[in-house]
Amino acid sequence: MKWILPLLLTGALILSLAACGSETGESGQSSSAAPSSSSPQAETETDSAAVAPSIDTEETVSQISDSDILIAYFTMPEDVDTEGVDAISGASIVVNGGEVMGNVEYMASVIQETVGGDLFQIETVEQYPLDHDPLVDQAAEEQDADARPELATHIDNLEQYDTIFLGYPNWWGDMPQALYTFLEEYDFSGKTIIPFCPHGGSGFSRTESTIADLQPEATVSEDGLTISRNDVADSHDQVAQWAAGLGL
């Protein structure tokens, strides 16, 4: 019977070690729970362009600064191989300092660099395809249907701004339909709207008149800027000189 006592002591030691291992495991699991919104991982996941916004993730853009200038823009960079210079030259993107930007986004950034103001990207709940052919096909279908794509970003302090730069690509001789949604959502009475637009050969295509029709109580500047999409990547000085010359 003398062998029973050592056996019992050994069993007790094993149980004690197992219990310690279990507590360590629970503590480790707790420390690796879902990251908070302020952690780098959470920011990366939330800000990823691969995450399509939905109604549940709508954003309202509040006051960013005390500026009275708003630079609102709709941009749609095509998904191309940025290693190929020839591919980039004909696409709707600019590679600036290693960052891939849409043509309109790039022009908006130069405007802000020159005159200040707050940037606001007009985004839709439904994501557009980034391949060229499906993108232009969807743009044509939306125009035929006179669609009003639902917006995922909104402004709640429009009264702060006196001057609105409005940027958009020329799609099939018109603004993207999301611009119609945007211009019908807000009242720009008493404000000045300054359009800017990269194009494939058609300039503004009278979209300034369309903006004036949608916002009859606003002043639509006749000094807007339109640039061929093939020239946007080299347009920094042109955009900057234009923006500075507006005297804002």
Automatic annotation (TrEMBL):
Annotated GO MF terms: FMN binding; oxidoreductase activity, acting on NAD(P)H
Keywords associated with the record: Signal
Region entry Disordered, spans: 25-58
InterPro entries: Flavodoxin/NO_synth, Flavoprotein-like_sf
Sequence ranges of Low complexity compositional bias: 25-43
SUPFAM superfamilies for the chain: Flavoproteins
Keyword Signal belongs to the record: yes
One Pfam family cited in the UniProt record for this chain: Flavodoxin_4
The organism of origin for this protein: Catenibacillus scindens
Segments forming domain Flavodoxin-like: 102-242
Protein name per Swiss-Prot or TrEMBL: Flavodoxin
Key word Lipid metabolism present: no
First and last residue of the signal peptide: 1-21
